[in-house]
Amino acid sequence: MKEKPISFETERLFITPTSVDDASFMLELLNSPTWLKYIGDRNVYNLKDAKEYIKSKITPQLVKHGFSNYTITRKSDKTKVGAVGLYDRPGLEGIDIGFALLPEYERKGYAHEAATKIMDAAHNVFNIKIVKAITTKENISSQKLLEKLGLRYVDTIRIPNDDEDLLLYMAP
């Protein structure tokens, strides 16, 4: 990566590249009920695991592409509420947008606000022509948000090391 990672801002949120400083927050998010239900267990059970997850999964992609996972922080009180990002995901050709919030911050518009900003950045900052997304059949909230972001359902797929059918969405 040639330049300092880019951060973003919306009316209510700071959207900053996730770093090891976010390890305790990531530990909580990766073990939240909705993450475990819809995204899956990442085997992150303590602070050391969270730091290693960030170092091995998030930071390398940030260095390689200039984008990765971003921590969503509420401006009003500096509370970390969730994550959003652009991912070069194994088994999925192209770049994938994803988002997750701690349960107590869902249904407040934060995911939409952050994901809208990241979609804009995908096209206008990172020059990504097509953005994809995957979600489970049961995750209706995610499907609705993807559609609000302009992505459309195109197929059911499976990715490596996952035996669940996933819904694939795309947006030009």
Please, could you describe this protein's structure?
There is one protein chain. The chain is of the alpha+beta class and 172 residues long. The chain has a single domain, classed as Aminopeptidase. Helices cover 33% and strands 27% of the residues. The protein contains five helices and eight strands; from the N terminus they run ββαααβββαβαββ. The chain has helices at residues 23-30, 33-38, 47-65, 110-124, 140-148, and strands at residues 8-9, 13-17, 69-74, 80-87, 95-101, 131-136, 152-157, 166-171. The chain has an eight-stranded mixed beta sheet. α4 links the parallel β5 (95-101) and β6. 31% of the residues are buried.
Number of domains: 1
Helix content: 25-40%
User: What strand order characterises the main sheet?
Assistant: 1-2-3-4-5-6-8-7
Q: Termini separation (Å)?
A: 26 Å
Strand proportion, as a percent range, falls in: 25-35%
Instruction: Tell me the CATH topology.
Output: Aminopeptidase
Rg result? 15 Å
Structural class: alpha+beta
Poorly predicted regions are: none
> What letter string, H or E per element, gives the SSE order?
EEHHHEEEHEHEE
Largest sheet report? 8 strands, mixed
The mean pLDDT is 94
Task: Please count the beta strands (DSSP E, at least 2 residues each).
Answer: 8
CATH superfamily grouping: Gcn5-related N-acetyltransferase (GNAT)
CATH class: Alpha Beta
Descriptive key words:
globular, 33% helix, alpha+beta, 27% strand, Aminopeptidase, 8 strands, single chain
